[in-house]
Specification:
This protein is α/β, with parallel strands linked by helices. It contains 8 helices and 7 strands, in the order E-H-E-H-E-H-E-H-E-H-E-H-H-H-E.
């Protein structure tokens, strides 16, 4: 996987899976625009990589003007956009549908669906102009199966997979590929927060239960998801588009093996 002279935008790029993708992309010769609302972590990562290889832009991905601004900043800094990891997302809360807070539902759908839509809306024109490009949207195995207690997150990740399919059909003839990755439980802040919500007094027991439901018997690592993202962004995946690819240790292959919330990334 060689990204020499390639430019990527990574939303949610300051931490977790996004950070791993940023580091993997530049390690293979590329340049990256890190987008995140965590300004401290984003600026620190850009400084770690170096100003000739990375820029950071703080943005709320639900606001069109801020999405346009990170696209324009990338074009100004690097002259083009070859790859886009449309990754920013939030988990919401654990609650049954009848008890789910409407404002939290709207917030999850805003970041996880509208944010992905706006990213596609404003990044794709630069790729269309160039006649090439590759996009990877971050969905989840919660976008492939039902996850009781996580109505907003599950609905949002199903929507990400739907947007991936639509975009694939629209821009495939223009030389642009669009895929989605569907992580299972990954050792990131998000899964740790979900475990705390399920059992505030004993989150470690929840994580142990999640792990027991996975055929590989462990959480994945952010770098393992990043490896798949980077493959899909690269020319090695030149005939792959419109797909949803799991990185879940086999969790969705054996859906009866564990707890209801164990499908979350």
């Amino acid at each position: 996987m060689d990204f020499t002279n390639r430019v990527a935008i990574v939303t949610g790029g300051a931490n977790g899976i996004g950070r791993a993708v940023c580091l993997g992309f530049v390690a293979r010769g590329g340049k990256v625009a890190i987008v995140d609302r965590d300004a401290e972590a984003g600026a620190a990562l850009a400084a770690e990589i170096g100003k000739d290889r990375a820029i950071f832009r703080a943005a709320d991905v639900t606001r069109a003007a801020e999405v346009q601004a990170y696209v324009e900043a990338t074009l100004d800094a690097f002259g083009g956009i070859d790859c886009f990891h449309n990754n920013a997302g939030i988990e919401g809360r654990i609650a049954n549908i009848v008890d789910y807070d409407e404002a939290i539902y709207d917030a999850v759908m805003g970041v996880n669906v509208k944010g992905v839509f706006l990213g596609l809306k404003y990044v794709l024109p630069a790729m269309i102009k160039a006649g090439r490009g590759s996009v990877v949207n971050t969905a989840s195995v919660a976008g492939l199966v039902g996850t009781p207690g996580m109505s907003a997150y599950t609905a949002s990740k199903h929507a990400v997979n739907g947007l991936t399919k639509v975009a694939c059909g629209e821009v495939g003839p223009l030389g642009i590929r669009v895929n989605a990755v569907c992580p299972g439980p990954i050792a990131t802040r998000m899964v740790q927060e979900i475990a705390r919500q399920v059992s505030p007094n004993n989150p470690d027991a929840v994580e142990a239960g999640y792990s027991a439901a996975i055929p590989l018997r462990r959480f994945g690592q952010a770098e393992e998801v990043a490896n798949l993202v980077l493959f899909l962004l690269s020319d090695l995946a030149s005939n792959i588009t419109g797909g949803q690819y799991t990185v879940d240790g086999g969790r969705t292959a054996v859906p009866s093996a564990g707890m209801s919330q164990s499908s979350l990334r």
